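User: Here's a structure from my thesis project, written as structure tokens. My advisor, Dr. K., wants to see whether a designed sequence matches the one we expressed. Can you design one independently, without my sequence as a hint?
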């Protein structure tokens, strides 16, 4: 069967950006994941085909050769999946387990050996969510994070005990394989729990795991310009790995409370305030709140129409982790309020004004674009 064009495989155009190619590959890979299609050979082939296409199109040099010479220009470069493996954790970040599954597909690994010969694996990353106020997200703040994580047992220095020998089940790899064909699924060895070795004399403190729980409190800086959903990564603050393996990360997800009056879009903030009919007609000065607190005076020009926005420069949001003094803008929308209840004097004056201004009893409609 003839090979399909790589752009056709991923369903993108030849002018597709790197991000569009990555997004297309992610969609296909997830749709054909072996856990949801364990015995589906067609899904297996689609995944393999998409991975080969991504390997070529995600590399600028390989893509250029392919565009110029076709499959002949990338012979020997479509089977190693080095770019796929390199980008996999980024493409599938947030989808637990995909990285380990990919290791089993393509033989990649975050698994090394300690000096004792035991299998060393990077510890798991942990997630934590914090909520900050609208103002603190804009100008930055610090929050305290209390969490529990695994660390190397101090009694055995993370070794788990003495009298170690190679695990008879996994033969030291820490993993056992299942399945066949293209997808060789790997899972943690049930005998040694991924260590690659079994221990004759387990440590009394950690019962042979090499790990103990530790409660920790951190002061985490929330940078200026932080938006709702921002992810902050604290390297090495997650769970310690078995057998002295490096620690995973602590991933902080930031949630921002909505403000009662201000709305944020990118680096700009928006506020709407009411003014009276006479203020709109004659013009005036009013005081309006700003996001940093306090109020500023704003001149309202005479004859302003309801819904008109005024721009207040440098009263918005700084760039994320940028200069706090270099900010976006604030847009103030004025809403002209029509009085609902008029006294006798006010009604009399309004009638005089009505006669002085005159009224159009048959007004022309206003196009929506205005």
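Assistant: Designed independently from the structure alone:
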């Amino acid at each position: 069967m003839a090979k399909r064009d790589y752009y056709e495989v991923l369903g993108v155009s030849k002018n597709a950006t790197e991000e569009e190619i990555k997004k297309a590959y992610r969609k296909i890979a997830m749709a054909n994941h072996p856990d949801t299609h364990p015995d589906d050979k067609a899904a297996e082939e689609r995944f393999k085909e998409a991975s080969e296409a991504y390997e070529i199109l995600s590399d600028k040099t390989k893509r250029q050769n392919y565009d110029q010479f076709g499959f002949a220009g990338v012979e020997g470069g479509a089977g190693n999946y080095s770019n796929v493996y390199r980008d996999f954790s980024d493409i599938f970040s947030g989808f637990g387990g995909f990285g380990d599954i990919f290791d089993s597909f393509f033989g990649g690994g975050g698994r090394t050996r300690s000096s004792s010969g035991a299998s060393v694996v990077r510890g798991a990353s942990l997630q934590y969510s914090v909520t900050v106020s609208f103002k603190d997200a804009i100008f930055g703040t610090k929050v305290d994070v209390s969490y529990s994580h695994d660390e190397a047992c101090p009694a055995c220095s993370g070794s788990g005990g003495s009298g170690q020998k190679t695990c008879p089940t996994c033969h030291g790899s820490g993993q056992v394989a299942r399945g066949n064909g293209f997808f060789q699924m790997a899972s943690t060895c049930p005998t040694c729990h991924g260590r690659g070795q079994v221990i004759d004399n387990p440590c009394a403190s950690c019962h042979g795991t090499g790990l103990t729980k530790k409660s920790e409190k951190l002061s985490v800086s929330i940078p200026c310009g932080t938006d709702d959903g921002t992810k902050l990564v604290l390297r090495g603050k997650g769970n310690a790995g078995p057998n002295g393996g490096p620690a995973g990360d602590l991933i902080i997800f930031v949630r921002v409370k909505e403000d009662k009056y201000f709305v944020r879009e990118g680096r700009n903030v928006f506020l709407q305030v009411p003014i009276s009919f006479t203020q709109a007609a004659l013009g005036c000065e009013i005081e309006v709140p700003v996001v940093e607190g306090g109020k500023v005076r704003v001149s309202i020009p005479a004859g302003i129409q309801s819904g008109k926005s005024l721009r207040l420069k440098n009263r918005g949001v700084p760039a994320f982790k940028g200069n706090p003094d270099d900010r976006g803008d604030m847009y103030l929308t004025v809403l002209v309020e029509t009085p609902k209840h008029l006294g006798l004097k006010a009604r009399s004056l309004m009638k005089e004004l009505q006669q002085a201004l005159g009224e159009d009893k048959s007004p022309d409609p206003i196009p929506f674009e205005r």
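When you compare it with your expressed construct, this may help: Confidence is low (pLDDT under 50) at residues 94-109.
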